[in-house]
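Hi,

Apologies if this is the wrong queue. I'm a grad student, and the batch job for Binding-protein-dependent transport systems inner membrane component from Calothrix parasitica NIES-267 produced an output file that my downstream script rejects. I'm not sure whether the problem is my script or the file. Here is the sequence I used:
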Amino acid sequence: MNISPPKEKLHIGWQGVFSVLMFILMYLPIAVLAFYSFNQSPYSGAWEGFTWEWYENLFRDERILSALQNSLIVAFSAVSISAVLGTLMAVGLARYRFLGKGLYRGISYLPLIIPDIAIAVATLVFLAAFAIRLSVWTIIAAHVVFCLAYIGLVVSSRLTNVDPHLEEAALDLGATPFQAFVKVLLPQLMPGIIAGCLLAFVLSLDDFLIASFTAGSGSNTLPMEIFSRIRTGVKPDINALSVILIIVSAIVAFVAESIRNRTDYSNHN
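Support response: The file is valid. Your script probably expects a header line. Output copied below for reference.
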């Protein structure tokens, strides 16, 4: 006589329930937004059928395309400048000793914790004090402030896993400090630099508050254009644009995290 073992009961702890609720709260609004972006009705309240019309209209909207161009100019310019300055800052803080190093380290990462509204107001007051005309370039200057801190932080974390003896060996073999930096240290830092740049690109592309304070006439960015349109109500074309922004931001963030995780895995092995 065979006696089958008792079946194990499925046990769901409060941690699992809490995790499911958190995912629902975070992603249900995005799912609803995506659903209504395909709504044939020009009003988001009632479903009248499926359509791609709103996505097609985005690529024919001159204001949207102009705002997208401004956002890309700001993001690429701010990230490019911050990549150079942030890398040099991280290397300088890790490799050299100088007076006030601890104070400088704390100040350099303050934009990570300072509210965006404070950075926006401070930048606007600074520009007004020197009578600098607001334009796309003032947005870039403001975005460099926080992009620099994010890239510097990511590169600094990467520097903790870099063997300093490799750079010393290059110097002992006759390389100049610049050659040792370019040929030995920089290739090892490159995954961290790329991950930091991708993170900063997403933050710059999605920023509204700082850009709205430092933008001149005719220099709207994409988030600013979205905000100006939703004042009269949320339309399906804005839903479609928001979905595209969410997808692009998620892809860039996923790539940045994949690069960072792959680098960490290779270092531990």
